[in-house]
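Fold this complex.
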Amino acid sequence: MRLAELSERSGVPIPTIKYYLREELLPPGRRVSATQAEYDEEHLRRLRLVRALLQLGRVPVATAREVLAAVADESVDQLSRLGTAVAALPPGGPRDTDGDETTAREAERTAEELQRRLGWRVVPENPAHLTLVSALSALLRLGYPCDVSQLLPYGRLAGDLAAHEVALIGEFEAPTTQLEAAVALTVLYEPVLLSLRRLAQAEEASRRFGGE
Amino acid sequence: MRLAELSERSGVPIPTIKYYLREELLPPGRRVSATQAEYDEEHLRRLRLVRALLQLGRVPVATAREVLAAVADESVDQLSRLGTAVAALPPGGPRDTDGDETTAREAERTAEELQRRLGWRVVPENPAHLTLVSALSALLRLGYPCDVSQLLPYGRLAGDLAAHEVALIGEFEAPTTQLEAAVALTVLYEPVLLSLRRLAQAEEASRRFGGE
DNA sequence: ATGATTGGATAGTGCCACTCTCCAACACGG
DNA sequence: CCGTGTTGGAGAGTGGCACTATCCAATCAT
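Structure:
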């Protein structure tokens, strides 16, 4: 199919697709002449994935390029690719730099002990670990409780989710498909999880605080 | 304290604080003369909350203003204020507009049935509901499984989290403090939850796919 | 008295995800 | 074979947003 059809079928404007091609979020089409290129179903799928990452996952363009490059990079083993891809995903950008050293230290200790109690390896350079520390540090500074005992249930829940999701990924056959699935599920289940939490909060709050 | 001290104690640059004052994210200081104003501990607390919302919670400035205004609005009852405040929080912005009607319809049905099965009220205008539908719709379009049976465990987990959090909020005494706590915990536990999920995924993936 | 500081207003900056404009090379109907 | 329209590509331009730099007059410290 031509660019115009790719645009129509995906709902993405032509100039935007051109932009994605330039940014290497989409592989170029099969050149059929000096000024024509042909796109296939694979491009359509990829375009939808890109859109989902950018719009729902709020992934910056530069990051999405890295992630997709890592998925496609056949020179390394699958687990490394998975690690690289997922590590690049946000939150991984500007962490919070305010605040004093003391709370930062305490947040760090809490995060580490939490992971040890859950039986997880502690990898201090992991972006997720850094994000966790930032968030805990902000909570501490605001005076909200976030000790290990509070957080343990969250950790166990996260473990359940992860087990479920990794099992799901394992069901895909082709390695690249698995990697793509890992990225897609990591990013797209975030809004699912967060909106379910919001809905549950609303339900619980109206039960507890609202009479009606 | 003066602006300079507020800046120093919070780690936020003076021009940025001025900007927040202009944007009504911070209430003005107590005027002590035509060109001097006095700030107190409450301003510091509020400033930290604003920073946490903007930087960790990625809340847009305009949204944060709405949320904080709703928290402070004493003309309505607490549950309404809570609802207004939390409803304004992202994800609530640009939902995904691509894609066909069919998947959107199916996503809608899935979301509704899921909530019914969880015993929750279905409020189609709820921003969280709309986000959920968008995310499910994207998953469907990409061909990933997201039927009710897959999602039920997520919903139950979300319910557990919400119960825990709402109970925590109930422990605060003053209504405004409760509302602030609700906003802060809603926003700040998101990165906590998401990074725990990432860490758990990494743990689980290396257990399952990586030998060592 | 006088130089520094303060709070407030206005305009400017940098980043980012697009989006517009142009162009030469085709494709295609007559 | 010729004119008309479309295509893909490249560069510059746009709009939104979260700051940030500059000014200014009033006031404070000495």
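The two ends of chain A are 56 Å apart (CA to CA).
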